[in-house]
């Protein structure tokens, strides 16, 4: 009897803890991302190429002793976080749904949250790597001035964390709109491009028409850019913002609100199967 019990105990598979499951799924997601040249180039290198192009063309100041590069890099960091959190997930997930990956995962003993944990880990790692790459290029080639106080770095951290969380949740929720994996890029890309143009990524935000500023203020990208401007631009430049200051409290509230909205939309709209499967 004891021999049988001991053999059963030895044969029983070791149960993995939640942290181990999440990390394993995260490593799997990272490997899949890095194997796709298109994903790597578009998500990580495209913002770098834009910095190289825009900073080489626009070398002057935009006012208040602020060079265009110093202003432009804030928008590029924000749009990079939006790309990896919102755009990439809103394209990847419909493709996986179309291929039956999500349907098979739902049929396995693996808890459903592990799939999302893997996506979150992938987004976080790629987002950090992309931001470091952008800063390195801007510092080495265009003399970008990095934040010089601990308070600014802390602001940078919470703006980036709230922003990428909101974008990730919205990306997961938005993934349910695409009818198929093939249509996902054409569904998501125009939305991302419009948000970039109206949120002060490519242009000085206050130079945009008032109605465009008001539309942009609904969405998180504008507030991510504004929060990052408070980090990389002088405090005096805040007077040139639409409200006359960087409004960091409002930045935090809006981004946190979008995290909640994104989570609710994920819970209510996420689909594991295509419309064909029901």
From TrEMBL:
Look up and give the membrane topology term.
Multi-pass membrane protein
> Which family is it part of?
Belongs to the ABC-2 integral membrane protein family.
Superkingdom as given in the UniProt entry: Bacteria
Q: Which residues cross the membrane?
A: 40-58, 70-93, 113-141, 153-175, 187-205, 251-270
In this protein, which residues make up the domain named ABC transmembrane type-2?
A: 38-273
- Name of the protein described by the UniProt record: Transport permease protein
**Where is it localised?**
Cell membrane; Membrane
- The principal location of this protein is membrane
Q: Which GO terms describe its molecular function?
A: ABC-type transporter activity
Q: Which GO terms describe its cellular component?
A: ATP-binding cassette (ABC) transporter complex
KW Transmembrane helix (keyword) present: yes
Give the InterPro entries listed for this entry: ABC2_TM, ABC2_TM_bact-type, ABC_2_transport, Nod_factor_ABC_transporter
> Is Transmembrane helix among this UniProt entry's keywords?
yes
């Amino acid at each position: 009897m004891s021999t049988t019990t001991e053999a059963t105990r030895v044969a029983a598979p070791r149960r993995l803890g939640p942290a181990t499951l999440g990390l394993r799924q995260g490593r799997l997601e990272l490997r899949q991302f890095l194997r796709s040249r298109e994903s790597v180039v578009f998500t990580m290198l495209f913002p770098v190429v834009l910095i190289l192009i825009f900073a080489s063309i626009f070398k002057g100041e935009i006012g208040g002793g602020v060079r265009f590069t110093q202003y432009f890099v804030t928008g590029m960091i924000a749009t990079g976080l939006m790309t990896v959190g919102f755009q990439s997930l809103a394209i990847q997930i419909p493709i996986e749904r179309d291929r039956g990956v999500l349907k098979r995962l739902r049929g396995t003993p693996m808890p459903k949250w592990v799939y999302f944990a893997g996506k979150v880990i992938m987004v976080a790692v790629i987002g950090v790597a992309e931001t470091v790459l952008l800063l390195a290029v801007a510092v080495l080639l265009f003399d970008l001035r990095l934040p010089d106080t601990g308070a600014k770095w802390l602001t940078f951290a919470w703006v980036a964390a709230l922003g990428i969380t909101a974008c990730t949740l919205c990306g997961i929720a938005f993934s349910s709109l695409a009818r198929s994996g093939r249509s996902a890029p054409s569904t998501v890309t125009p939305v991302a491009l419009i948000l970039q143009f109206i949120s002060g990524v490519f242009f000085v935000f206050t130079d945009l028409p008032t109605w465009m500023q008001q539309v942009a203020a609904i969405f998180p990208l504008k507030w991510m850019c504004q929060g990052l401007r408070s980090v990389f631009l002088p405090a005096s430049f805040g007077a040139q913002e639409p409200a006359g200051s960087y409004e960091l409290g409002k930045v935090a509230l809006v981004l946190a609100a979008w995290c909640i909205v994104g989570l609710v939309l994920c819970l209510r709209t996420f689909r594991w199967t295509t419309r064909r499967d029901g």
